[in-house]
Amino acid sequence: MTSTTNQQKGDLYTSVTNQIVAAIKAGAATFEMPWQCIGGLPKNIASDRSYRGINTLLLWLMGNSRGYATPYWATFKQWRELGHPVRKGEKSATVVFWKQLTAGEPEADADPADTRRPFVARAYHVFNAAQVEGYTPPTFQVLAESERDQAAERFFASLPITVLHDDERAYYLPSTDTVHLPPFARFKDANGYYSTRAHECVHATGAPARLDRDLTGRFGSESYAVEELVAELGAAFLCAELGLSPEPRPDHAGYIASWLKVLKSDHRAIFTAAGKAQAAVDWLQEHHEAQ
Fold it and tell me: Which residue intervals define the domain Polyvalent protein metallopeptidase in the entry (predicted)?
């Protein structure tokens, strides 16, 4: 590879990084998954937010045991306000919400010497969309096979990384050294599919048998967050190289901004991550060219 080409790649990566930093500083949009979840995480239909932590597990177990086909839940009152009353005789599922108490509330005054604002668990009862009247779950448009980018397909097919399209989520599993993705048809657009695949393939480059990327030395407990920065920057670099998106999508900035918050808004960390991301993309390119 010529020095001119290396210089061009360096300029491209720097440009992408700077655009993402500018988007973060301007207020990056909230990140949304680029695929459509049919089963997916349990979600509150009124707030459009996914349940988290133990509530995810509770509603998954309840939904599976009762055979519910949709992940949408809400309280009795929320369903009624949406115009879809819960059918008589339906049994609710219980979720837990942690509320921070303010002075004057009974639980907050239990120990006057304790100046911290305590949290208390509050139980809420929710019902699935299958338990209400007149609600039709949203339908999803299937992404056509004709939307595939043949150059990108050849690139990813040439990599020595096993990719399985067998899940509702996207992730790299180190124990089996495999990337897992939702099916192509589930994505909202082709660019979303390829950037997600690129993200997980960048994660895979960090395996001991590849680049052996260890970020704990500099970042310690924040190494997981920085690894996410590396993967998302790498995805943005690779999509630009493949001509899939000449400029980074707002999704990239939104995703990266969420991890920079974990790093106490240390925007300098993104440049360290960018160097690691460039090394990961170089590894992917070299193994593609070897094929």
Answer: 151-275
